[in-house]
Amino acid sequence: MVGIVAISAFVLTAAGVWMLLQQRLLRVALGVTLISHAVNLILLSAGSLGTRPPLVVPGAVAAELTDPVPQAFVLTAIVISMALTLYLLAGLATRALRGESTDLDAAPESDEGLTPDEIRAQLGGGGQGA
């Protein structure tokens, strides 16, 4: 069982890192989601794997119980990763609806000697600076 969990976590992490290295923002968002699933799997396996109950019942020995703390951490991490994924997808949808590119652009080599307006023009931003 531990081997299956370890292989699954490795595959999820490898696929997530590969997707993070892509140029499309949708793939980057999905890569973050895959990595969060891998972390959830690792956290869940930090508790006891198997079918032992996490509840304390009268007469139960502590060695026969599952630690409920990793399960609580995973539930919290699932909610956080869902919110992060929705935030990334909403930002992606906003860019697409505005007609902007959904590809990641390369950062400029240097901004040395440039005025703030020139930097803003290089990065594609508009408007006045604060």
Q: Care to describe what's here?
A:
It contains four helices and no strands. The mean pLDDT is 83. It is an all-alpha fold. The protein has a domain of 86 residues: Helix Hairpins (Orthogonal Bundle), CATH 1.10.287. Helix 2 packs antiparallel against helix 3. The chain is elongated. It is 60% helix and 0% strand.
Task: Describe, in short, the structure shown.
With 130 residues, the chain is an all-alpha fold. 60% of the residues lie in helices and 0% in strands.
Oligomeric nature of the chains:
single chain
Q: Hey, roughly how much beta strand do the residues contain?
A: under 5%
List SSEs in N-to-C order.
Answer: HHHH
CATH architecture group name of the domain at 1-51 and 65-99: Orthogonal Bundle
Please count the beta strands (DSSP E, at least 2 residues each).
0
CATH fold descriptor of the domain at 1-51 and 65-99: Helix Hairpins
First-residue to last-residue Cα separation: 56 Å
Helix content: 55-70%
Mean pLDDT: 83
Q: What can be said about the biggest beta sheet?
A: none
Spans with pLDDT under 50 lasting ≥5 residues? Answer: none
- Count of DSSP H/I helices: 4
Structural class of the secondary structure composition?
Answer: mainly alpha
Apparent shape: elongated
Top-tier CATH class of the domain at 1-51 and 65-99: Mainly Alpha
The radius of gyration is: 22 Å
